[in-house]
Amino acid sequence: MKSVLLALIINNLIKYSITQSSNLFGCLITQPECPNSNISFYLYTRETQDNPMRLDLNEPTSVKNAKYAQHQPLIIIIHGYTGDKDYSPNSHLRPAYFQRGEFNIISVDYNELAKYPCYFSAVTNTRTVANCTAQLIDFIIDNEIFNIESIHVIGFSLGAQTAGLIANYLKSDRKLKRITGLDPAKPLFIRVGNEGRLDQSDAEFVDIIHTDVFDRGLLVPTGHADFFVNGGFNQPGCLQQTEMSASSCNHDRAPAYYAESINSDIGFWGYQCAHWYFYVLGLCNGDEYTSKAEMGFNTNNTVRGIYFLQVNSEPPYAQGKNHSNHDASLDGTNENSDF
Ligand SMILES: *[C@@H]1O[C@H](CO)[C@@H](O)[C@H](O)[C@H]1NC(C)=O
Ligand SMILES: *[C@@H]1O[C@H](CO)[C@@H](O)[C@H](O)[C@H]1NC(C)=O
Ligand SMILES: *[C@@H]1O[C@H](CO)[C@@H](O)[C@H](O)[C@H]1NC(C)=O
Ligand SMILES: *[C@@H]1O[C@H](CO)[C@@H](O)[C@H](O)[C@H]1NC(C)=O
Ligand SMILES: [Ca+2]
């Protein structure tokens, strides 16, 4: 009884402080209801890529009668903190998909709920974003517009965690086929359980690309297949770059690599290593005895484990199966690094 009371008090304290800080910055925590006026869904096909259609469950016919590309997969893209439908990863991924062929792409836009400097409320809002996205997916499946096998959800940063949360809201007999997490966000997600973040249980296959584990991204592998590019830290070319901070450059490489993988001839091939620390200690290499897996668009859903690879400092980033420079990543590391 005492502990229940304590939990209640703590819960209210947290709620209260959220409200306080929200008011302080004018941050918005949305009502947990769907459809939600601040969560929008835009459908793009090759033909309508510059002129997307809004899918709005307040008007179910807008979803039922939208002009889908028949018999093609459905990719659902979820942006992160401060993003929108035209910001990373959408800006990387949509053109690359349509260069490859015909796809249906739904870009989720919850910009109003993820504005700077409201990271804390953005994290809270992702539950409703996931709920409303799940509602749309359920509607699409119930109305036989797509079957669940043809749906692939891709989220970047906070959007990767949001993609994982969709599992908590889908009708109970449903499980997504594939979720790809592009450098899943770390702040406020280190100590939450699997129910609060992207993990293996959220889809039949979860693949994750890590590019900024020391700052914005999460170090722990939580997918079926986890790819650490350049060890998951400093991406080549990011330290020199001036337009954005090195960290946002590292972070933003995850969608850039994925986008390139969609049309790459040689591909991004990683080699397996049992643990990130073994890699950092130099105990793993890409020799012929090590198993390899391709990262990104072509990742086989049977791949399991942790993989490492190097990339070039500018596009095209992919190095194919050439792992001869696998030690290069350690050059950027020093003994004082905060492992
Ligand atoms: C949507 O955003 C606007 C502008 O920030 C806000 O006034 C409104 O209350 C929000 N509505 C919901 C349902 O979040
Ligand atoms: C999800 O959205 C539905 C529809 O608005 C709502 O009834 C339900 O309470 C929401 N669930 C949560 C946990 O917020
Ligand atoms: C995926 O991997 C399985 C098992 O290794 C293999 O049988 C299958 O051919 C692969 N699929 C593709 C598309 O490469
Ligand atoms: C493989 O990478 C190394 C180091 O970057 C480079 O010297 C070599 O030319 C590459 N080999 C091929 C076949 O591309
Ligand atoms: Ca989860």
Automatic annotation (TrEMBL):
Its main location: secreted. One of its GO terms (biological process) is lipid catabolic process. InterPro entries: AB_hydrolase_fold, Lipase, Lipase_N, TAG_lipase. Residues 36-317 form the Lipase domain. GO terms for molecular function: lipase activity; serine hydrolase activity. Residues 1-19 form the signal peptide. It comes from Polypedilum vanderplanki (Sleeping chironomid midge). Belongs to the AB hydrolase superfamily. Lipase family. GO terms for cellular component: extracellular space. The keyword Nucleotidyltransferase does not apply. Keywords: Secreted, Signal. This is Lipase domain-containing protein. The keyword Secreted applies. It is found in: Secreted. Residues 318-339 are annotated as: Disordered.
